[in-house]
Write a structure and sequence with these properties.
Number of strands: 5
Distance between the termini: 32 Å
Order of helices and strands: HHEEEHEEHHHHH
Strand content: 5-15%
Structural class: mainly alpha
Strand order of the largest sheet: 1-2-3
Number of helices: 8
C-alpha cells in the first residue's frame, strides 16, 4: 500500500463572522477599523494598489457609490464603481465629516497621513481579539467573495465589484467553501433511502 503525504493547503480560510466581530470589537487603531470594514464590504485589494489610494473625492455618499481605484494589473479602466452598503453609509458619513474638518483627503490614513502598511496594527488587532491563527489583511477580500456568494449574490456582480473581468478568477481563487455549504452539496441530490 502506497501512502502519499498529505498536502498542506496554502489557502488561508477567510475570517469567519465571529472572527470579524472580534476584530471589530477589539480596540484597534481607527485606520485599521476602516480597513476592516471597507475591505470586507467592498472586496477591494488591501494595500497601496487600491484601498490605500482611495480619496474622499472618490466617495459619493449622495449617489452611494465608491469609485475604487483599480490595481494596475491590466485593468481596462482606472477605477470601478462599488455601491455603498446600507449599513456602512452612516459610518462613512461620520468618517467623511471628521476628515473634512481635519482637511484629510485619504479615506485610509493615520493621523492625517496616507497609509502604506498596516502590518503592525493588524497583528496587534489579531492579538487583542484573541485570534491565534494566521490571517492577512488581504483575507478580508476573500471573506467578501466567500460570504457574498454564500448568501446568494450574483457571481458576475461579485466579480465586477472586486475588479475582475470574469467569474473564473473569483471561483478559482477567492471563493472558499464552508463546511455547511459542502454538507448542503452532498445532500442536494436525490437519496436512495438506504436502510
Amino acid at each position: 500500500q502506497i501512502r502519499l503525504p498529505r498536502g498542506h493547503s496554502r489557502r488561508i480560510a477567510p475570517p469567519t463572522v465571529g472572527e470579524l466581530t472580534k476584530l471589530q470589537e477589539a480596540p484597534a487603531a481607527p485606520h485599521l477599523q476602516r480597513v476592516i470594514l471597507l475591505g470586507l464590504y467592498t472586496g477591494a485589494r488591501i494595500g497601496p494598489s487600491e484601498l490605500f489610494r482611495l480619496r474622499w473625492l472618490d466617495v459619493d455618499l449622495d449617489s452611494r457609490l465608491i469609485r475604487m481605484p483599480n490595481a494596475r494589473k491590466g485593468a481596462e479602466f482606472e477605477a470601478r464603481s462599488i455601491p455603498v452598503r446600507d449599513d456602512l453609509l452612516p459610518l462613512l458619513r461620520r468618517w467623511q465629516q471628521a476628515d473634512a474638518a481635519a482637511g484629510v483627503e485619504f479615506v485610509i490614513h493615520y493621523r492625517g497621513r496616507p497609509v502604506q502598511s498596516i502590518s503592525r496594527a493588524w497583528h496587534n488587532a489579531l492579538r487583542r481579539a484573541g485570534i491565534g491563527r494566521r490571517l492577512r489583511p488581504y483575507d478580508l477580500r476573500h471573506a467578501f467573495a466567500s460570504h457574498a456568494l454564500d448568501h446568494g449574490a450574483d457571481r458576475k456582480c461579485v466579480a465586477e465589484v472586486m475588479g475582475h473581468k470574469n467569474e473564473g478568477m473569483l471561483l478559482q481563487i477567492y471563493q472558499h467553501t464552508l463546511l455547511r455549504q459542502r454538507r448542503r452539496a452532498v445532500n442536494a441530490g436525490p437519496g436512495l433511502h438506504v436502510k
